[in-house]
Amino acid sequence: MLLTEFDDNRQAIINPQDLHEPIEGFPKVVISCFSRVTFARLLENYDHEVIARTSMANFEVVVYGITIGDQQIGAFNAPVGAASCVGIIEDLIQFGMEKLVLFGTCGVLDRDIEATSIIIPTAALRDEGTSYHYLPASDEVEVNKKTLPLFQAFLESHKVSYQSGKVWTTDAPYRETIDKMKRRKEAGAICVDMECSAVAALAAYRGFELCYFFYAADHLSEEKWDIRTLSSHEDLDEKDKVALLALEFACDWSTP
């Protein structure tokens, strides 16, 4: 199968360095989220400036520098979908990023997981195509290998509850069938997203540090899908708190 045909040749036909130069002074630590609304609300609360621009086919991604005291943290609104998300992160690595805090919604497979609560993935089931170009074929990829205890300690110090477990990453949300969901739950998944396994594979391949977490949104069940707080305009105050946690952790992480 083509998906098992991993090629570890690090020189591709097109490489990030063919299109972009490193940017002097680019922030070593960058945060990103997928929600346009949450990202815009985060920017509104801090001094920021445009520090870079990049693009993926038919859309542009603006990278901002958020100034907090004497620190500057990079920030961008991540595109949805594994291939686009990974492509943009490749560019940021070339600019100079060394650490990434990435967060977004996920669907939960357990009704007891409360809306907008935090989930830290420990592994991702690889049901997308992008990760297979960065790591040999396998059922899953480890997530947050180095940052898990650090981020857990951060949340606990802020008295923020969380759950940890596997995530099912899929390219096709309209093909999340009941039978597939049952099999993923049997494999240990507690939630589902569209990018995590690919970004984790990229981090392992390129060697940057990754802190990836979710806040719970919709609930997938055998009876009926429950949209809950999936909409970008639902539960905004709680989502703002999640974004603030991500930024605060990024600031702590950037301190030598």
Poorly predicted residue ranges: none
Give the distance, in angstroms, between the N- and C-terminal Cα atoms: 45 Å
Question: How can the largest sheet be summarized?
Answer: 5 strands, mixed, barrel
Widest sheet, order of strands: 5-9-8-6-10
Estimate the global geometry from the Cα principal axes: globular
Radius of gyration, in angstroms, nearest whole number: 18 Å
| Mean of pLDDT | 94
Approximate helicity band: 25-40%
Report strand %. 25-35%
What oligomeric state do these chains adopt?
Answer: single chain
Task: Quickly list its features.
256 residues; alpha/beta; five-stranded mixed barrel; 31% strand; globular
Summarize the structure.
Pfam families: PNP_UDP_1 (PF01048). With 256 residues, the chain is an alpha/beta fold.
